[in-house]
Amino acid sequence: MQLFGSEILGLGRGLPDRIMHNSELEKIVETSSEWIKSRTGIEKRYIAAEDEATSDLCAKAAVEALEKANVDASEIDLIIVATMSPDYMYPATAALVQYKIGAVNAGAFDLMAACSGFVYALVTAENFIRCGRYKKILVIGGEVFSKILNWKDRNSCVLFGDGASAAVISQTEDSSKGIISFELGADGSGFDKLIAVAGGTKNPITAEALEKKEHLLTMKGSDIFKFAVRIIPESIQRVLAKTDYKLDDIKLIVPHQANYRILESAAKRLGVGMDKFFMNMDKYANTSAASIGLALYDAFEEGALKKGDLTLLIGFGAGLTHATCIVRL
Ligand code: ACO
After folding, report:
1. Which sign does the torsion angle of CA 72, 173, 80, 281 carry?
2. CATH assignment of 5-175, given 3.40.50.300, 3.40.47.10, 1.10.287.1770, 3.10.320.10?
3. Is the pTM of the predicted complex or chain greater than 0.85?
């Protein structure tokens, strides 16, 4: 069987109109702009309108990515939406996106790997393309966290934002392009580190659960911090070891944008400077499954990355999950 390469033909983003600066949060919970900025690197986030759902942001991102790729929606074979804040528990948000953008020939499914979702989806899409089964796939990460957060919990509500990112992945005859090595990981023993306790089949929603706000996000922030600081360098080293490349050969690491201090610790452990990591959490906060796509988007817009560059993407989050890949763009 011939192996094909894959390439990102176009990137897009979908953002709500409303921007919420840290200062606005001072009126909602006991916090300060300074605390948020200095402990996380976040300055502002986007917040969806009342009638705006994850599929709306995903469709917006998809339309831009298709335009940039010069690809018609009807050419798309598959849509994968990575999200942990879907429009509905079912049907899949990806099916709604398929309908909204008129991707009449596409299959569609959601993928839930929290903040690792974009890389999980990219690796999944890449494998369909590399083996020649599909030619064009839309990989989308999208979240409307503002509607699943407990706005009384200062430990979590200051960290997240809404947004979506999309990439059109296409088959190419050049098999050197695309994902060179990857690692998808999970440690389900940490399932309760970031969780909505109620709303699934384990604890269906009851009046009592609603009263206790158990349908909303709760997080053990420092445990996730420790997990991330450990897994980032470990996984990067393992994924590099599967190739002939060294860290020096990677132009830029595009990580999940949770907290600049997580990346600072990881950089120290890897023995590299912070300039090795692309960061834009100041603009969007943590957008979970959308964050790596939004970072890729900005890295291209700012000229920090261009076609042909070798980059490394790494996500980590609820599950606990992590996902790492080295990509020739
Ligand atoms: N404003 C002011 N003070 C606060 C706030 C806030 N918004 N939040 C917490 N504090 C307080 C705490 O109550 C604590 O006070 P105490 O010492 O009196 O108890 C103090 O600040 C320090 O708390 P720490 O938890 O030690 O703060 P830390 O420096 O570790 O930062 C943070 C907390 C930002 C949550 C950090 O642990 C973190 O970023 N963790 C990772 C979280 C994350 O990325 N989650 C998403 C994963 S991705 C996904 O799957 C969705």
Report:
1. negative
2. 3.40.47.10
3. yes
